[in-house]
Amino acid sequence: MNYRSSWMTEELDVFRDQFRKFLGKDLAPHAEAWRHQKLVDRSAWRALGEMGALLPSVPQIYGGLGATFAYDAAVIEDIESVVPEATAGVSVHSGIVAHYILNYGSEEQKLRWLPKMATGEFIGAIAMTEPGTGSDLQAVRTTARKQGNSYVINGQKTFITSGQTADLIIVVARTGGPGAKGLSLIVLEADGNEGFRRGRNLDKIGLHASDTSELFFQNTAFKLAERKTEAMIARVFIDWCVERLIAGELDTVTASMAKWWCSQKQVETADECLQLHGGYGYMQEYPISRMFVDARIQKIYGGTNEIMKLVIAQSL
After folding, report:
1. What pTM value is reported for the model?
2. Third-level CATH fold of 10-121
3. What pLDDT is recorded for position 203?
């Protein structure tokens, strides 16, 4: 695809060239081991930190590069292309947790946590989802009761990215009455925190022991032509959104449109491409099988696509 994102710069080209080489040489060879052990090694986080790939748009005083969101977008795009096993953790760590702290934390908190997140010493996570609540945060039952200068948290969370390795966890908890206004974000340092316990590392979908038969392909070229067209549309739309975000002009409705439509097309594309591979597509040794499995969660986390459509509908 002969296309260059409008937000790319020569400086970012230099960074991405070195970054892609690093990903391919230093991280990609470990991807299979990470899949088997169901987590990314801490050494990889530290290596990403040394490359300046963690918290790139956070100010330098807090350990970041002080760059624009274009660097965040480039980092996630390159990780997804070369070593997608690390995408979810890094995107939550750098794109969500760090910016909650940057935007809402005190100066002491920012100086305490962000530099460690930028080096990979601390891994960040956000604990929103609870059993039975899904994306409806207004139904959160976890509570946080103020006691002196801290809070006592009681409750349960599930489906938490980096839940096994996180050092710093932002917990969505109820500190007031019902509804959204009664919710707060409480930051928990995992190390030495009595009463905090990690559950099992969840097994996600995949019929790993199932035997497979051959299938045959039809209409392959037409299907790929359709998907290439949709990929170009998505690319242009996302670039436009990135431009708006860098300029401070991206609104919630447009962001919701981008999230639901692009994640929906990702799932549809992965499903169709797996079908074209026949039975081989369901074998873990083929990259399409991982793309298929990993794509499905995109419609759920970060706010379900149903919630995204609700946000859009309210603007009509």
Report:
1. 0.80
2. Butyryl-Coa Dehydrogenase, subunit A; domain 1 (1.10.540)
3. 61
